[in-house]
Amino acid sequence: MTNYVIQLTDNPIKGVALKEVNIMMYFKQNEEAVSPVIGVILMVAITVILAAVIAAFVFGMGSNVQTQKTVGVNLQKDNTDLKVTIAGGPDLPALQHLRVTVDNTAYFTQDNAGTYAMTQANSGGTRSFKVGETFTLGGKLSSSGYKRVVVVGHFSDGQDQMLADKQI
Q: Is the pTM of the predicted complex or chain greater than 0.85?
């Protein structure tokens, strides 16, 4: 608040009287500095930019994910023998060989003069598997107790994928 001295005349004939008067200056505040339309446009622009950055991050991470293969394998116990049967699937033509692990010991299906056998040596042999084809791993299961059996398929694109994991 500021004090100003203003010269006022009560009566022009008597002379001039001086009075001290407090004058308060009031300013109308304009709170509409940015119009609502510009505010909405700015919010939409920020949202679009944020969505683009998040999408680029998410889609960039998914580029190195391998496709899931679909091949069915059945595992059966026959006394102390393990029977692995090919059940089929759309990726069966790409399947090159199986690795069957029984309690941390690996056995492979491999090409052995036109037939497949389960051996511990992997010769890298490949041939096409047929639906219903059965491989027998003899004497590797106990008649009592369980063993963990894991079947991993190796495909023509170099990818290995677990096809079965079972306690037998």
A: no
